[in-house]
Structure formats: C-alpha cells, structure tokens
Amino acid sequence: MTYIEGFVVAVPTANRQAYLEHTTSAVEFLKEFGVARMVENWGDDVPAGTLNDFAGAVQATADETVVFSWFEYPDKAARDAASTRIMTDPQMEGMGASMPFDGSRMIYAGFQAEVEEGAATGTGYVDGFILPVSPADTNAYFTMARTASAVFRDHGAIRVVETWGDDVPAGEKTDYARAAHATTDEVVVYAWVEWPDKLTRDAGILKVTADARMQTPPADLPFDGKRVIYGGFTTILDA
User: Fold this and answer.
1) For the residues 38-63, what does the mean pLDDT come to?
2) Closest-CA residue to 132 (of 197, 11, 227)
3) N vs C: which end of the chain shows fewer Cβ within 10 Å?
C-alpha cells in the first residue's frame, strides 16, 4: 500500500521560482532513490483558523507562503530504504545548504495511506488537510473518509488520499502534533483532494458542501472539527 512522506514548509513568497527550481532539481535522483511521485503545491486559499492553521503550523510570517507537498512510495520499505540513501547522499548535502526557505520550521513525517481513490494524473489544484484522530475512532474516521471521497469525486475531484500517521517525529520548533494540537493519545492524519484546476475545485466545493452525504452533525464526527487544518494550494510540480 502506498506510503506517503508529507511536508509543510514556509517559503518566502519572493522565492517561489527559486523554490520550484530547487525542488525540480531534486526530482531525478529522488526517483532513483525510490520516490514514485513528487508533488509540490503553493498556498493559494489558506485561511487563518481560530485554534490552528497552516501558517501557524510552520510559523509562517506575513511575507511567506505555505507549501503543502508530498512524496509517494510503493510501500513503507521503499520509503525507509530511500530515507537511508537520502541521508547519506552527497547531493542532498548540497541541496540542504542551498534551500530557499528555513528548513528548521519545515514539518515532515511518514504516513500510511488508508484511503486512496482516483487517478494520480492531471492534478492542478489540491485541498490539503491535517487533523488529529483518536485510534479508537480509526474505523469510523476512514469509513467517513471513503464516503467523503465518493462525494468529492462525484463533484469533480480526480483523486482523494487519506493517510494515518506512522513515523511522526517531534521537532524542536514545529511538528505535526503541535500543528494539529494533538494529544498524546491521538494520531495525526494527513490528507488531500486533487482537482484538475482551481475553477473545478471552486465549483466542486460548493456542491460538496451542499451534498446530503456530507451533512453530519459536528457532535457525530469521529474527530474534533475545530482542530482541522485545511487550505487550497496550486500545484507547481507533479513529477
């Protein structure tokens, strides 16, 4: 089953092109290491939250834009093997020295895909989500996620992926647990919806919101909706 390495980064808005060049230059050797797909998404519709949000997750300043990105691997073994090579490859040392963003505020982790529906082709816009879920609610959450996936795809989305935190390290400045205000007995979920473009997404979201299948009272949700982080992102690299 697909294994995901998910990232959230704060990038100086003025460095958008430098960031794209930086990530594009890494595609070839990351593919050699075992990355099956690499997707980078630039913040476009990223609202401020009452409790938490994407900007707070990475301590983004007013002149920075949040990037939501991920690597896809065939399975966890492929990811673990790639991580070993990445950590020891001299090319990565050079890339680390030239990052056009503050790497100390980047959050990253490994996630096991539990819901993966639709085709990973033609992505132009992504809705990204981070939220904490209790292990006791795992089945209820992914049952709901599968229903939601069908709704999103019925209204124009091309792919929906929901993942369960597996290798989620604590960071010195930022990390996923702090981003989602997760308690010690909760697991972080990293999820996204892929759309062909923003126009389709904007029209589709209105239909998704109005769909009867999505009308679940907050009290019946298998997670705390107040701590869900979400935002819309323009895809700038899909390789």
Assistant:
1) 98
2) 227
3) N
